[in-house]
Amino acid sequence: MQKIIVLDFGSQYTQLIARKIRELRHYAEIHPYNFPYKKLLAEKPAGIILSGGPHSVYEKKAPTVVKELFASGIPVLGICYGLQLTAHLLGGKVIASEHREYGKAALHLKKKSPLLLNVPDDQTVWMSHGDKVDKIPPGFEAVATSLSSPNCVIQNSEKNWYGVQFHPEVQHSKYGKLILKNFCEEICQMKPSWSMKNFAKSKIQEIRELVGDHRVLLGTSGGVDSTVTAKLLHDAIGDQLSCVYIDNGVMRLNETAAVKERFIRTMGIPLHIVDASRRFLKELHTVTEPEQKRKIIGRLFIEEFQRKAKEIGHHEFLAQGTLYTDVIESVSVKGPSQTIKSHHNRVAEVLKMLEAGKVIEPLKELFKDEVRRLGLALKIPREALFRHPFPGPGLAIRVLGELSAERLNLLRKADAILIDELKSTGYYAKVWQAFAVFLPVQSVGVMGDQRTYENVIALRMVSSEDGMTADFAKLPHEFLGRVSSRIINEVKGINRVVYDISSKPPATIEWE
């Protein structure tokens, strides 16, 4: 199969490159920037993309590639840091820019280029850099400029070497997807043939070869990610899979009953249900720091899995529904990305099993929308696939501060009202993620001519494509007012509702 290999230099956007290429029906894989050159050649890629990254090419220990890569005959596209590295290695000069470019910028085309085929002469692109190419390498020409980057797009069309200073992979670069399409189809001569059906087929075969006649233990929350993982594994190895649902006491209202119905009756996948809610809440009760909450939940998950695994028989592998957004925000497995926060599926116990090659994560390089398309290819019911994302630590990170049964009960009811209103009005499918947050503050109110001093609920609803960036959902004031009124009137103990209007970045989608 024809493929593009993306070498990761630590950009938070690296996976978006592969995602956009897959949307164009071309297969793409991500490997670390120091992926062995001989192995890279053995993969026989149709093209190579060098990602962006946080470093400067003139630093002493800046990540790099072997110069032989450019003599391989394989087309190369450098993005941001990748452009600068290309120029640096091939005889150009990179310097710190006097005027850094972050955010939207105007790009102007000077010359024709197969990379910019059918792209307008003037367009908006997304920049994120502090260095610039001051001198282009011999054999190159500048084909597009921006206000602060006279060498914003460079090419050596004879050698099929290209570089862009902006990020075509982000949605803010209006014609970025077309530029990636041109690289794949005009320069690398690829034909669109990849699909989620092909991905499912290859993953099923990969799982069968890895597992052999061993058994796999999957901990499922019943959410989209673990449901798709369960179906993929069950299609691959059938009864060798044991699915365990841990009721950790921080799930949504009536969630356990809904998961049982979905797995056993709808999909025909056996499910072991463990009620460990008392144990989780006991250990979480006095914990206020979110990272500690995540670590406790992750540790208890593993302990409960191990206990249940011993009960139902030995399992050689642990499976998880990890997505790329989980991985890149905790630690990059492909390059030197910067840590943002840890996740329950990257706690110490799991990391040890990962090192031993005993963890199966078939979705770890997919985004949420791709997981849903994979689920459709696996014939999972739509209502199970198009639920909003739900964090592994559950409501533990949506009750800010100290957990208690009372706070969880208030949050569950408020959250259920929000989701009910979203579904009844048709807004649920238009919002990428929506949930309620319990704030550890109390406010003064008036109910029935009496003064109240009760709790506050924050509503968080965002629009997004993949969870990497997000904006608050612009829902009608009438809708927000109705949700607020219902929560305050129906949930005794809440007297104020606020709406979160922050975007990601700088905020994250979850509060903790």
Assembly state of the chains shown: single chain
Percent of sequence in beta strands:
15-25%
| Shape type | globular
Low-confidence stretches: 330-334, 337-341
What kind of sheet is the major sheet? 9 strands, mixed
DSSP strand tally: 18
If you average the pLDDT, what whole number results?
90
Cα-based radius of gyration, to the nearest Å: 25 Å
Helix share bin? 25-40%
Distance between termini?
41 Å
> Strand order across the biggest sheet?
2-1-3-4-9-8-7-5-6
Describe the structure.
This protein has 15 helices and 18 strands. It is 34% helix and 24% strand. It has a nine-stranded mixed beta sheet with strand order 2-1-3-4-9-8-7-5-6, with helices on both faces. Strands 12-11-10-13-14 form a five-stranded parallel beta sheet, sandwiched between helices. The radius of gyration is 25 Å and the shape is globular. Helix 5 (196-211) crosses helix 6 (224-237) and helix 5 crosses helix 12 (368-377).
Helix and strand arrangement:
Layout: E1 3-8, H1 14-23, E2 27-32, H2 37-42, E3 47-50, E4 76-79, H3 81-89, E5 93-109, E6 122-135, E7 141-145, E8 153-156, E9 161-164, H4 176-187, H5 196-211, E10 216-219, H6 224-237, E11 241-247, H7 255-266, E12 271-275, H8 277-284, H9 290-312, E13 317-319, H10 324-328, H11 348-355, E14 359-360, H12 368-377, H13 382-385, H14 405-425, E15 433-447, E16 450-463, E17 471-472, H15 477-490, E18 494-499
Parallel strand pairs: 1-2, 1-3, 3-4, 4-9, 10-11, 10-13, 11-12, 13-14, 16-18
Antiparallel strand pairs: 5-6, 5-7, 7-8, 8-9, 15-16, 16-17
Helix pairs in contact: 5-6, 5-12, 6-12, 14-15
